[in-house]
Design goal:
Layout: H1 2-17, E1 18-21, E2 32-40, E3 50-53, H2 56-59, E4 64-71, H3 79-93, E5 104-108, E6 113-118, E7 123-130, E8 166-172, E9 178-185, H4 191-209, E10 244-245, E11 276-282, H5 284-293, H6 303-309, H7 312-326, E12 337-345, E13 363-371, H8 372-377, H9 380-392, H10 396-409, E14 412-413, E15 417-421, E16 439-442, E17 450-455, E18 464-470, H11 472-485
Parallel strand pairs: 7-8, 12-15, 15-17
Antiparallel strand pairs: 1-11, 2-7, 3-6, 4-9, 4-16, 5-6, 8-9, 10-14, 11-18, 12-13, 17-18
Helix pairs in contact: 3-4, 5-7, 7-9, 7-11
C-alpha cells in the first residue's frame, strides 16, 4: 500500500514537471482599429545610394518574421507618447547604423542574387487601438492566432516591390497598456542580431528621452559587413550535407520568395491535414530530471565535456526529437531514419570568429540522424549526445562548406523536423524607458514539422514551452511518449 502511494505520488510529480498546457479560452478578435499608417524615413538623407550585399544564408531567408512585445500601462509613457518617441528614434537609427533597414530588396539581374538597395525609402509605421484591455485579451504565454492583428506585414498603399523591410505597429489597449508588433524580413536579421537591434532601440529611446543628451546612444554598434560570410572563390564543398536539399529551380525574387511568407521554407510547407495544437510545459524541475536521465555517458567522458553535452537545450531537444519521430504513423517506422534540425550560431565557431554584433544571419542548421529503432531502444543519454554532436560538427570549415554549397545549389535545410528555439533569445529582458515587456513572442503559424521552443513566465525563469502541431493520432502518441520519457 505504501509502495503504491509512492508510485501515485511520483506520477503526480512528473505531471507537474511536464504538463500539457490546457488551451485557455482565447479571444480571437481583438477589435483592432488602424488609425494611421505611414513611412518613417531616415532623419537625414544618405549622401549616396548603395547596394547592400546579402550572404548565402541571408539569400534563402526572404520571408517576414513577426514578433509582439506586450507592455503594461506606464503613467509617464501613455501609448501615444510611446508611438511618437518610437517614430522619432527610428528615424535617427535609420541614418546609421541601420540604414539598410530603410532600403528595399532588389534582385540583381546580372548575378541572380538578392541585394538591399539602400535608398532611404523607410520603414512602415502603424498606430492602432484595441477595444479590450491587456488582461482581457487573455493568456499571453499561449500562442494566440489573434496576435497577428497586432502586427502589420504589408502596407496597402505600396506596390509589392516597394514594401518595407520592417514595419512597426503600436497598438494601445483600453487599460493604457500597449503592444509593439514588429515585422521584419528575415534577410535583415537573425534572432541574435534582432535582439541587439531591440537593445539598441531601447538605448536610443532612453538617450532621446534625456533632453541634455543630443547624441544617439547605442548598446553596441552592429557589424554590417556581410562579406564576412561570402562564399569562397572558387566554392569548396568539403563535407557531405544531408541536412540540405538541392533545388532544381529558384524563384528568389523580392516578392516571390522560395520561402513562404509565414516563415517556413518550401521544405516545411503547410499541410492540408487537420492539426491538433498543444503546448507542452517543462519547468526547471522537469529539465533537471531530464539531465539526470542523460547522465550515463560513454566511458572516458570528462566532467567538462559532460557539461557541454547535457545542457538544458540538448535534453529538451532530444526529448522532442524522440517524441516526434516515434509518434509517426508511417509503416515500418522502426527502420525509418529521422533527421532533426536546429539552428546553431556560427559567430564564435568561425576562424577568426565573427563579431558578436554581426547584424546579419549567422546561424546554420545542425542535424542529428538516427533510425526510430535507435531512438526507441537506445538510452536517452545517447539521443542527447547525438543532438550535441550536431553542434560540435559546426566548425569553421563545415560552416564555410555549407555557405559554398549554397553558392552552387541554392537549396534549403531538409529534415523530418525543425526545432526552432525562441527560448533564450531574451527579447523580454530588453529594458525600454517604459520598462521591460510583460511578454515577448513570435506570431505563430502552425506547421507540422516545425516545433517551437518558447519562453515561459515562471518564478525561476528556467522553464520552456514546447509548441507542437500534429494530426490527432500522432498528437496522441506524441503526448504518451512525452509523459513516458519524463518517468
Amino acid at each position: 500500500m505504501v509502495e503504491q502511494s509512492k508510485i501515485c505520488f511520483l506520477k503526480i510529480k512528473l505531471r507537474k514537471m511536464g504538463t500539457v498546457y490546457e488551451e485557455p479560452s482565447l479571444l480571437q478578435d481583438f477589435k483592432v482599429t488602424i488609425h494611421q499608417s505611414s513611412l518613417v524615413t531616415p532623419s537625414q538623407k544618405s549622401e549616396r545610394n548603395s547596394m547592400f550585399f546579402l550572404s548565402n544564408i541571408d539569400q534563402v531567408l526572404n520571408f517576414d518574421v513577426q514578433t509582439v512585445h506586450f507592455f503594461p500601462a506606464h503613467k509617464d509613457f501613455p501609448p501615444q507618447t510611446v508611438a511618437e518617441k518610437l517614430r522619432e528614434t527610428l528615424g535617427e537609427m535609420l541614418v546609421d547604423p541601420y540604414n539598410f533597414l530603410a532600403g528595399r530588396l532588389k534582385l540583381n539581374a546580372k548575378t541572380g542574387r538578392l541585394e538591399i538597395d539602400c535608398n532611404d525609402s523607410g520603414v512602415g509605421f502603424v498606430v492602432a487601438s484595441s477595444e479590450f484591455t491587456l488582461d482581457e485579451i487573455g493568456d499571453l504565454v499561449y500562442p494566440n492566432p489573434g496576435f497577428a492583428q497586432l502586427v502589420t506585414i504589408t502596407l496597402d498603399t505600396l506596390k509589392p516591390e516597394e514594401q518595407p523591410l520592417g514595419i512597426f505597429q503600436v497598438t494601445s489597449f483600453k487599460c493604457g497598456g500597449f503592444a509593439i508588433g514588429i515585422s521584419t524580413n528575415h534577410a535583415t536579421f537573425d534572432g541574435l542580431s534582432f535582439k541587439l537591434f531591440l537593445q539598441n532601440l531601447a538605448a536610443a529611446l532612453v538617450s532621446s528621452n534625456n533632453k541634455s543628451n543630443s547624441i544617439l546612444s547605442l548598446t553596441s554598434t552592429p557589424c554590417n559587413d556581410r562579406q564576412l560570410l561570402a562564399a569562397r572563390s572558387p566554392p569548396r564543398v568539403t563535407f557531405p550535407h544531408p541536412e540540405l536539399l538541392k533545388l532544381t529551380t529558384k524563384t528568389n525574387t523580392p516578392q516571390d520568395s522560395s520561402s513562404n511568407s509565414d516563415g517556413s521554407s518550401g521544405v516545411f510547407e503547410a499541410t492540408q491535414e487537420d492539426l491538433h495544437i498543444k503546448l507542452f510545459r517543462l519547468n526547471s524541475a522537469a529539465i533537471s530530471h531530464l539531465k539526470d536521465k542523460a547522465k550515463p555517458r560513454p566511458a572516458g567522458t570528462n566532467n567538462v565535456e559532460a557539461k557541454r553535452i547535457v545542457t538544458s537545450f540538448n535534453v529538451v531537444t532530444a526529448l522532442i526529437w524522440q517524441c516526434k519521430a516515434l509518434s509517426s504513423t508511417t509503416e515500418n517506422n522502426a527502420d525509418r531514419e529521422s533527421t532533426m534540425l536546429y539552428a546553431v550560431d556560427i559567430r564564435p565557431r568561425l576562424n577568426p570568429p565573427l563579431p558578436a554584433s554581426y547584424s546579419g544571419n549567422a546561424v546554420l542548421s545542425a542535424y542529428a540522424r538516427a533510425t526510430c529503432r535507435e531512438l526507441e531502444e537506445g538510452p536517452f543519454s545517447r539521443t542527447v549526445e547525438m543532438v550535441w554532436e550536431g553542434a560540435r560538427r559546426m566548425t569553421d570549415e563545415y560552416a564555410r562548406s555549407v555557405i559554398d554549397w549554397g553558392e552552387l545549389y541554392k537549396g534549403f535545410p531538409h529534415g523530418e523536423v525543425m526545432v526552432s528555439s525562441w527560448w533564450k533569445l531574451g527579447f523580454e529582458k530588453v529594458e525600454y524607458p517604459w520598462g521591460k515587456p510583460r511578454y515577448s513572442c513570435p506570431v505563430v503559424y502552425h506547421r507540422k514539422d516545425i516545433i517551437l521552443l518558447l519562453p515561459d513566465i515562471d518564478e525561476d525563469g528556467g522553464g520552456v514551452n514546447v509548441l507542437v502541431a500534429l494530426p490527432p493520432k500522432e498528437m496522441e502518441k506524441f503526448q504518451t511518449i512525452f509523459h513516458n520519457l519524463l518517468a
